[in-house]
Amino acid sequence: MIKNGSEIFVESLIRENVKVIFGYPGGQVIPIFNALYGAPIRLILPRHEQGGAFAAGGYARATGRAGVCMATSGPGATNLVSGIADAYMDSIPLVSITGQVPQAMIGKGAFQETDFFGMTLPVVKHSYLITDINDIPRIVKEAFYIAQTGRPGPVVIDVPKNIQQARTQPVFPTEVNIRGYNPCPKANDLELNEIVGLIEKSERPVLYVGGGIISGNASEELREFVEATGIPVTSTIMGCGAFPETHPLSLRWLGMHGSAAANWAVNGEYEHRKTFNDPMKMIAPGADLLLAFGVRFDDRVTGKVDEFCKRGTIVHIDIDPSEINKNKPANLPIVSDVKYAIGRLNAMLRQRALEKKFTKWHEQIDAWKKKAPFGYRVTDEVMKSQHMRDHLQGKESEVILPQMAVEMLYELTKGDAILTTGVGQHQMWAAQYYKYKFPRQLLTSAGLGAMGFGYPAALGAKVAFPDKQVVDIDGDGSFLMNIQELATAHIEKIAAKVIILNNQHLGMVMQWEDKFFGGNRGHTYLGDPDNRKEIYPNYVAVCQSFNVKCERVMFKKDLRAAIQRMLDANEPYVLDVIVPYTEHVLPFIPANKTVADMIWKA
Ligand SMILES: Cc1ncc(C[n+]2csc(CCOP(=O)(O)OP(=O)(O)O)c2C)c(N)n1
Ligand SMILES: [Mg+2]
User: Can you give the pTM of this predicted structure?
Assistant: First the structure.
């Protein structure tokens, strides 16, 4: 049957099993919106295209399937860029559809024309500008295939309006065949056998695992491997939940704000040095073998990269050959689908069980865990927070520290909720004080670090899993960046919850000001300078205008019941939890520094 381009586009989306699109209309994309009318696809209107792109990212992170966002040309498209960059940095499958001015107008500076293909080139896995209506079915099929296979990532499809309106008899392909694209490389047994040999020889092996385990669906294999070998596991933030953090062999996550035990296990324990120029004095050695599976040696993990796991043999397995030797040379690099590689290793270990037990190493690791668990304490400093001082006078013991709120959420949700975050101190506390037990449980903008990600991402996750508790742990600064999505939540009846850890500051930037800029403040205060006692903005009033329930919580005695009310609600719900701004996130390895520079005692 002859159809127009928009109808063919929508038919192609249905064939890819798309269930939901976060889309914002405009002149150059109206035909596609029109064709979606009556289609078996839920169309959700975010209140800002950035919110739509982050929501699609949240949906993708929660499900592993491509999230889909859609916008008009020009300003609609440019508003998607942060969400596309976020998906690129964290290897998240995302298909971003944009209207474009008619082909005859391209390059003429037409109204709402931007070269979106060109603009997004550095932050996509692949992109298309459709120039022939007959290409639509193939391009849509390829786009989803590319986004979701191999190392996942974002794909842009830019569709000129005349293509949406042209007519043809479509032919829908059933297979994808892209020359030169081999998304599923497999390690050979020789390489894998070498790993077994290295484990046999080592005394202090550590697994360093990342988002690749999650996107590669390799958690089960990882667990079996850990249980067969007894090798302790640390993860990146992207890898949280890849291995249960409640397991005795979990070291929790590593890096700048990661657990001291994980950082010591990888790098060795060193005396804390006073200046960055002092020599490094080792107390106990770290890993002699590092199994880096599905990770990319990000600078937030390695610090000074030359010093990272300096004395260990490094085995690096990654599906993407461009990651090999990019940040840190590996002694044994293996390009492979990680699920396949670990699965084969398990099969080898089943045939010939490991002799090694690593008893001494386990003792050392337990000692490190005991010595420096994540921890906090209430100091007199909290009364410096002017937004709390008057309220807390005489009730100092009622102060809520941000870490406490996360811990309490962990307890009340029994560790089963899906969490999203903004970016800042609250993000780090959400990662430290909630223990992640399963993959796709912590959805956070890790690589891009985009404030404003938390709430829209929570909407995306809640749409995918309406029966799960989805809670955004957010900062007052981050939440404000996409606060308009409260309307989406209310109108679309998406019961995603929010805990704002409201310190009236851009806390993480402030922490750096305190540490490296003598405490000088450069626009890191978010309250009203003319009335520092007031909490500004008034989120209860803001939420009321969106018809979303919101409570402000100031005292510890009220926190538990308030979180429980939030969890029990069948609608969007915001808790504005007032916390002091004086807390710093610890441990802390300053950027590009070493484990000998780690501050870990509160
Ligand atoms: C879009 C964006 N702009 C700026 C930054 C830089 N930045 C990183 S953390 C941070 C402070 C975030 O404040 P808030 O959301 O209140 O979280 P807190 O650190 O106070 O918990 C800023 C400004 C960023 N990461 N993203
Ligand atoms: Mg803040």
Answer: 0.98
